[in-house]
Amino acid sequence: MSRQKPLQLQLHLLLFPSLILLSVGANGVTPVNSTSSDLCPSYDCGDGVVISYPFWYNNTSTSPYCGYPSFGLSCSPDNETILRLSSDTYYVKHINYSTKTVTLVDADVMGNSCPRVRHNISLTSLVPQLRYPNYTTSNLTFFFCCSRFPQAYLNNYASLSCLISGQNQSYVFSSDAIPETIDWYRYCKDKVVTSVMRSAVLDALLSNTSGFSRALQGGFELDWGSLVDCRACENSGGRCAYNTNSTKLLCICKDKTGIWKRCSDFNIFLEN
Ligand SMILES: *[C@@H]1O[C@H](CO)[C@@H](O)[C@H](O)[C@H]1NC(C)=O
Ligand SMILES: *[C@@H]1O[C@H](CO)[C@@H](O)[C@H](O)[C@H]1NC(C)=O
Ligand SMILES: *[C@@H]1O[C@H](CO)[C@@H](O)[C@H](O)[C@H]1NC(C)=O
Ligand SMILES: *[C@@H]1O[C@H](CO)[C@@H](O)[C@H](O)[C@H]1NC(C)=O
Ligand SMILES: *[C@@H]1O[C@H](CO)[C@@H](O)[C@H](O)[C@H]1NC(C)=O
Ligand SMILES: *[C@@H]1O[C@H](CO)[C@@H](O)[C@H](O)[C@H]1NC(C)=O
Ligand SMILES: *[C@@H]1O[C@H](CO)[C@@H](O)[C@H](O)[C@H]1NC(C)=O
Ligand SMILES: *[C@@H]1O[C@H](CO)[C@@H](O)[C@H](O)[C@H]1NC(C)=O
Ligand SMILES: *[C@@H]1O[C@H](CO)[C@@H](O)[C@H](O)[C@H]1NC(C)=O
Ligand SMILES: *[C@@H]1O[C@H](CO)[C@@H](O)[C@H](O)[C@H]1NC(C)=O
Ligand SMILES: *[C@@H]1O[C@H](CO)[C@@H](O)[C@H](O)[C@H]1NC(C)=O
């Protein structure tokens, strides 16, 4: 079984004499300046966000896909780019391939003038390649439906006026500055931690409804790092690809694809 793939690939190489010629070169292939668009298809749902490596267009029939696992993006019915992770959906508002940052908006808050965040942001724990850029992104902690709160807070901290329920109030704080005067966890029904742009935090805290809504609609930024297993392939000008059914890594190089680690490995591979 394990021999099956190498054999297929050897056959593949024999069918392409140009590759054999390349393999004669002293240290393998000369690195190529391939851009992701050369090797992997890009896609645009219609909102101007270009889906390109290491992201890939997940149209369910794509296998093997060129990109990182969990970086599959789909299109919403209204042509917006979306990222689905476990049970959460995010709108992808912007991808900057040079700074390697992606801007996401939680679908639960999108287009809602009084958004009630429902889930903690768990992206970075679900997808290890996504990282939290401390300088641009901040966390807010929401306490919903609190039956007790210090009277002074009614003046000093804006309660979220559109989320008042009977006598109960809801509050938002910067996650690293939650006032400790009362046991929020005990007196509030729900606690949710979410992320916003650092530049939107003051607005969220200082104006009672529109501010936090604006901050949430503005989304938050995440960085991505390269997948450790892909580095050799990427550094040699290739692009990583995965088969949906297996965890085996493929390296897509100019004119050739294989289970080697890097584009210059295929002559080593021939000797096996
Ligand atoms: C490859 O990129 C380098 C640096 O970006 C450039 O100097 C070189 O001309 C490029 N080669 C090709 C074949 O495009
Ligand atoms: C899925 O995407 C690939 C690559 O963009 C494309 O070749 C294929 O036709 C698409 N399939 C469907 C069903 O949209
Ligand atoms: C691709 O999209 C389908 C349907 O939305 C989803 O079930 C699947 O998990 C996605 N695959 C990846 C690898 O993101
Ligand atoms: C989505 O894109 C398709 C194809 O480009 C287009 O026909 C359709 O009208 C768009 N739908 C919306 C809601 O913009
Ligand atoms: C990516 O970010 C850099 C630095 O902030 C900026 O100069 C560049 O214009 C951005 N590119 C895109 C496509 O937004
Ligand atoms: C969010 O995480 C906190 C722990 O940081 C937990 O107490 C809370 O129940 C979580 N909220 C939701 C909605 O899962
Ligand atoms: C970002 O902040 C978190 C929590 O304060 C910290 O654990 C982490 O090391 C910081 N990361 C960077 C890159 O500074
Ligand atoms: C915000 O929350 C995320 C997810 O829990 C965490 O990884 C990150 O370090 C937090 N950022 C700051 C600045 O505390
Ligand atoms: C107020 O909060 C308490 C405790 O969280 C809850 O039992 C009660 O149902 C809430 N009342 C309203 C009107 O939301
Ligand atoms: C909050 O909203 C109420 C009316 O909805 C307004 O009277 C009050 O001044 C606002 N407070 C702040 C801090 O914006
Ligand atoms: C993946 O596995 C499913 C079910 O096991 C099978 O129907 C499908 O053909 C496989 N796809 C590929 C590309 O191997």
UniProtKB/TrEMBL annotation:
**Intracellular or extracellular location(s):** Membrane
Pfam families this protein is in? GUB_WAK_bind, WAK_assoc
* Membrane-protein topology: Single-pass membrane protein
Q: Which domain of life is it from?
A: Eukaryota
Q: Chief subcellular site?
A: membrane
Q: Which UniProt keywords apply?
A: Glycoprotein, Signal
Give the residue range of the signal peptide: 1-26
Q: List each copy of the Wall-associated receptor kinase C-terminal domain by range.
A: 162-256
Determine if Transcription regulation is one of this entry's keywords.
no
Q: Which residues form the Wall-associated receptor kinase galacturonan-binding domain?
A: 40-106
- PANTHER family in alphabetical order: OS01G0113900 PROTEIN (PTHR33138:SF1), OS01G0690200 PROTEIN (PTHR33138)
Q: What is this protein called?
A: LEAF RUST 10 DISEASE-RESISTANCE LOCUS RECEPTOR-LIKE PROTEIN KINASE-like 1.2
Q: Which organism is it from?
A: Nelumbo nucifera (Sacred lotus)
